[in-house]
Amino acid sequence: MEINASALSRITHEQAWHYRVLPKSINDREMVMYCDDTELLHGLSDELEILLGRRIALDPQPSATISHLLHQHYPKESGQHQFQKMTLAIEGDGFLNDLIREARLLKSSDIHIEIYEEHCRVRIRIDGMMVERYVLKKSEYPSLINKIKIMANLDIAEKRLPQDGRINFKSGEEQFDIRVSILPTLHGEKVVLRLLNNNASNIDLQQVGFSDFDLENYLQGVKRPNGIILISGPTGSGKTTTLYATLKYLNKETRNILTIEDPIEYTLKGINQVQLKESIGLTFASALRTFLRQDPDVIMVGEIRDPETANMAIRAALTGHLVLSTVHTNSAWGTVSRLMDMGIPPFLVANTLNTSVAQRLIRLLCSHCKQEQAFEASSYPKHFKPFAIVSHHYLAKGCDQCYYTGYSGRKAVYEVIPLDQELTEEVKNNNISIHSLLQQRGIKTLGENAFALFAGGQTTIEEIYPLLFTN
Q1: Is 88 helix (H, G, I), strand (E, B) or coil?
Q2: Torsion of CA 259, 264, 270, 272, to 10 degrees
Q3: Residue-wise over 363-391: b if at least 16 C-beta within 10 A, else e?
Q4: Of 97, 100, 172, 456, which shows the fewest CB atoms inside 10 Å?
Q5: Which residues of 9-40 are buried (b: 16+ CB within 10 A; e: fewer)?
Q6: Is-contact 114 186, C-beta < 8 A?
Q7: How far apart are CA 321 and CA 324, in angstroms?
Q8: For residues 316 and 281, is the Cβ–Cβ distance under 8 A?
């Protein structure tokens, strides 16, 4: 059903739930609102007109439909107190603070504030998917951007160049950091706020998603005193969380652990963490040079993104250090080709790379509303050979527990390749066709591990569909 995003903010969370109404459309003359046909009391429109200060027209809908829309657009936190959806009173800091708190409450990773020719909008990313939450008046947009710049200690007069900053946000007893990125666009500045989770207490290698077999292979590489462990995957695939879980596992009084990160997403007691600052020359490569003079046992590099950083990581591994890092490739074995593309000779890659990992995040079905249905093999990609016979699967239906998305939470799937002597020889020979060797070792691909989640009823075919092409 059509819901007018610009009108959503005209009524508060309490008003929407109390009267069981939602705005359908708004213009200069009137606001049309969906209402619960079982709550259509005499005088409801008159009361709303007095409350909202404009003419109201009502469009009755079934009670179940209104409940669905209320949970979707004015959500409550499951099992805890409900939060209030703010009105667009841009004056003061109320809107921005409430927006950040709401995003945190919904377990959002990013807030996008965007401007276009005729309107502005706010979107948030939940479980990897973008959801539009608010539409702002264009006249109110500049003041909101300036508030963000002031909080992040950025230049409010600079509107032509990109800017990056950081906000330390406090809300009650909770405190967390927000990475701010500002980009000049055609109609104004777009802002992305990345909400960073400083609490590393719930990160554990045993719980991030490794199968027992993959975890055993991964720990073999982690326990080695030197070499490089690389985790590959696209942005937002959970690589950093896996790295922090590994650092937490390695964090002992007997080890000196140094990290260079952009940004520092978690703070870990006992680990020396350095924030990247390219504007003053503090790059991954320059930090690594200094790290080698700091008597390290373990070094974590946020990302290997250029040949200079790759060469320094190789040098660190050759001199007896364990190096952890990430790289952008599509598969675990693809990291070998990526390093060679950066100019690293095959024999050096073979002598230093001890474990290669590929990782993705899969959304999990909501256990309260997933719906079982017979499965048709035609739903698979063309020419795909399933790893097991699946007769039934589950659909993402949606309920008030999952904000009517059908999904609740995400789980990582992995492909872990420990490099033994035979695989090392394949690296030296620059051989990329090793599928048969991996099968002999019982190593499962990303597609196989994702398929296991689907076959077990934990996710949908739509979620794992892209990974089925990796085999």
Answers
A1: coil
A2: 40
A3: bbbbeebbeeeebeeeebeeeeeebeebe
A4: 172
A5: bbbebebbbebbbbbbebeeeebbbbbbeeee
A6: no
A7: 10
A8: no
* Inter-residue contact 72 to 78 (CB < 8 Å): no
Other C-beta atoms within 10 Å of 153: how many? 10
- Report how far residue 16's alpha carbon sits from residue 3's, in angstroms, rounded to the nearest whole number: 13
Separation of CA 440 from chain center: 34
Whole-prediction pTM value? 0.77
Instruction: Give Cβ neighbours of residue 186 (< 8 Å, ≥ 6 apart).
Output: none
Phi, psi (rounded to 5 degrees) for 342: -80, 0
Instruction: Tell me the per-residue pLDDT of 272-319, one tens digit each, with 9 for 90 and over.
Output: 999 998 889 999 999 999 999 999 999 999 999 899 999 999 999 999
Any residues with CB less than 8 A from the CB of 345 and at least 6 apart, and which? none
Q: Where are the alpha helices (DSSP H) in 31-138?
A: 44-52, 63-73, 94-105
Q: Name the phi and psi angles at 118, rounded to 5.
A: -115, -15
Closest CA to 194 of 137, 109, 122, 123: 109
**32 CB-side CA count, 13 A:** 9
382-441: pLDDT as tens digits: 888 888 889 899 999 888 777 777 888 889 999 999 998 888 988 888 777 788 888 888
DSSP state of 167: E
* DSSP-based three-state secondary structure for 293: coil
Distance of CA 455 to the CA centre of its chain: 24
Residue 29, both tokens: 């003359």
CA–CA distance, 54 with 51 (Å, rounded to integer):
8
- What ranges make up the beta strands (E) of 257-327? 257-261, 272-275, 298-301, 322-327
